[in-house]
Each structure stands twice: as C-alpha cells, then as structure tokens.
Design goal:
Layout (H helix, E strand, L loop, with lengths): L7 E5 L11 E8 L2 H9 L8 E4 L5 E2 L4 E8 L4 E6 L3 E7 L4 H10 L18 H4 L2 E2 L2 E2 L4 E8 L4 E6 H4 L16 E11 L9 H9 L7 H15 L7 E5 L5 E2 L1 H10 L5 E3 L5 E3 L1 H7 L6 E2 L2 E3 L6 E4 L5 H19 L8 E2 L1
Parallel strand pairs: 2-5, 3-5, 4-20
Antiparallel strand pairs: 1-2, 6-7, 7-12, 8-9, 10-11, 10-12, 13-19, 14-16, 15-16, 17-18, 18-19
Length: 342
C-alpha cells in the first residue's frame, strides 16, 4: 500500500471554496487515489478527528475554522467504458470538474449532459446534490457510482435505485452523509439523443440563434450563454451559485398564492405539486442587490448570495436566514439552502 500522503497543518481553505471564505483546516490532505484514501482512513492519529470531504468547494458554506481533517478529493480520469443498444457508458473520477466532463462528452459526439453545462463543482459531488438545470438532472443519466465506506473500509458500487435520488437530494445527503465518499461515477448517455428544450428560457436562447434543429453542442453553448449572463464568476466574486432550492408545495397552496400574487412563477410537477421560483419570491421581498455587511444578494439573480469582499461564512449564513424569514413571513413558504453548511 502507498505511503501516507503529506498532511498539512493549519491550512487555509480560501482557494478551495467558491465563496472564498478564509476558513482554516486543522489538518488537510490531497487524495489522488483509493490507496491514499485507505491509508489515511486507517491511520490511528486521525481516527478521533472530525472529517470533511471536499470536492470543488462550490456547494459548501464554511461558517468557521474546521477542527478536523479535510480530505480534498482530486482523483482524475475519464473514459468510455462500454455501450449497448441504448447508451454509451462514460466513467469519470470524482476529482474531475463537472463542466470539463460535459465538454469531453460533447467533443466525442455524446449528447445528454448539455443542459447541465457550466455547473460548477466536481464529478464526485454531482450525485450528492443530484445537480440539475434547464429541465435535466444528473439522475436522468446516472448509471452507477463507486463508493468508499469510511466505517467498514470497503468499496462498493451503487446503482441508480440505491442512490435514492430526489430534488437536490440523494442517499449521500441522508444515511450515507459523512460515512461514504464517491470515487467515480458512470453515466449512461443516450444513443438516440433528442434535444431537451422544455425550459422556455433555453428555447428562446436557441431560437435567438436561429437554430431549428440544434445539436447537443449548440444547446450547451446556449446554456453557457444564459448562465454567464445571469450568474457571477466565482473567480471574480465569491459565490456558490444558487443558494436556495426552489420549494415544492401542494397544488392548493400554490393556487392560494396565485390568487394573491398572479405573477408568481411556478412549475407543475408529475405528482401534482408545484415547484415555486424561490428567486422570484426573494426579489419580491426586496433583497436583490442588497447586502448585510460584506455578504449580499447578486444584482442579476436573487437566488445567488455573494461575498462582496472579506465576508465570513457566518455573515453569509446570517443573510440567508434573514431572507428565509422574510419569504416565510410574506408567502408562508420555507426556502432551504442548497449548499452544505459546515
């Protein structure tokens, strides 16, 4: 087995979370192989420390220094691993950047992931959140994940059913939270590809480009254009993308809200419930563009909270809680954060 990798002490995580929060990890280690992970997991000197698995740092809010061991997953590699009549199977290591995987598949003529273009973060984090955008979700293409269990020190493969995917949810945020880490993900990309233009904003962007029969690459370009216009670049201003989930409510509650707020943006769900646009509600509460201290709400998209410079994680969290209170008071709807709060 490989030697114990270098462990760093009092390591700043500022460059490893997209909010740019200057939190300090008591111990930090880069994990580039299963063997490294096994070695660190077996080391007695770390057995009593709290553990935090870190990927791209795009879906996390650090509210203070971390008093334990941060495992930064940096495993690399992408490959086509098989095919059948319906799909081509692509496997990517957990440390790869999600958007680079999307581009890699498109370069090889494989459609399916284009609606999920430019979503920040790593491949290993994608199933945890069941990432989604513009009418597509990871679960639509998920085949399997290879997982390491810290408690049993075993490696197993979980299929789609075992992952219990929901809206921005999975088994990795439930019973396996803190217990398992994803090593790689295998996706099933359709051989008989059809464009997914269910979202009006995406249809309008494609139409504006004069494309009657858009390719997967053209749809990806359209998604990138939309996201670039609406969302801030974390390299310029710290953020974690959409900070709040769109709440799902029963039809009766949605209908009552529509009577009071005819402009309410909502989307019918297969089970008869409705998903409400959290950004619209936050905007109606007057938060777009406002700040509390160095934490603020992005001027172009009320779903996005930003670090305007030197904000602490606690400042961002305080802002989020104030927004939640105002939305609940006005609409009677609870909105929940997307990022993991540490």
């Amino acid at each position: 087995m490989t030697a114990l990798p270098a462990i760093q002490t009092d390591f700043t995580l500022r460059d490893h979370n997209t909010f740019g929060i200057n939190a300090i990890a008591k111990r930090y280690v880069t994990i580039s192989s299963l063997e490294m992970l096994q070695k660190v997991n077996a080391a007695s000197e770390f057995s009593t420390l709290p553990r935090l698995v870190l990927g791209g740092g795009s879906n996390i809010l650090l509210t203070g220094d971390f008093p334990g061991l941060v495992l930064h997953i940096c495993m690399a590699g992408m490959a086509i691993v098989g095919a059948d009549d319906g799909a081509t199977y692509v496997r990517a290591a957990a440390g790869e950047k999600w958007h680079e995987l999307v581009l890699w598949t498109l370069e090889r003529g494989l459609g399916g992931l284009e609606n999920l273009s430019l979503i920040p973060g790593s491949v290993g984090a994608a199933p945890i959140q069941n990432i989604g955008a513009y009418g597509a979700e990871l679960k639509d293409f998920f085949h399997a994940a290879t997982v390491f269990d810290f408690e049993t020190a075993t490696v197993s493969t979980l299929d789609k059913a075992a992952c219990a995917f929901g809206y921005r949810d999975s088994i990795f945020k439930q019973s396996l939270q803190g217990r398992a880490v994803i090593l790689d993900v295998t996706l099933a990309l359709p051989k008989h590809w059809l464009p997914n233009l269910g979202y009006a904003e995406l249809r309008q962007e494609v139409a504006a480009q004069g494309l009657d029969a858009p390719t997967a690459k053209a749809i990806s370009d359209a998604v990138i254009a939309i996201r670039t216009r609406k969302l801030p670049d974390p390299a310029v201003i710290g953020n974690a993308g959409s900070f709040f989930k769109n709440p799902v409510v029963p039809a009766g509650q949605r209908d009552a809200l529509m009577e009071r707020y005819p402009q309410l943006v909502s989307y019918a769900q297969p089970d008869g419930s409705y998903k409400l646009a959290a950004g619209w509600m936050i905007d109606q509460c007057g938060w777009k563009g406002r700040s509390l201290g160095a934490a603020g709400v992005y001027e172009k998209q009320a779903l996005v909270l930003v670090n305007r410079g030197g904000a602490s994680g606690q400042e961002v969290l305080n802002l989020a809680r104030k927004i939640q209170e105002d939305v609940l008071a006005r609409f009677g709807v609870t909105i929940e954060p997307e990022p993991v709060v540490v």
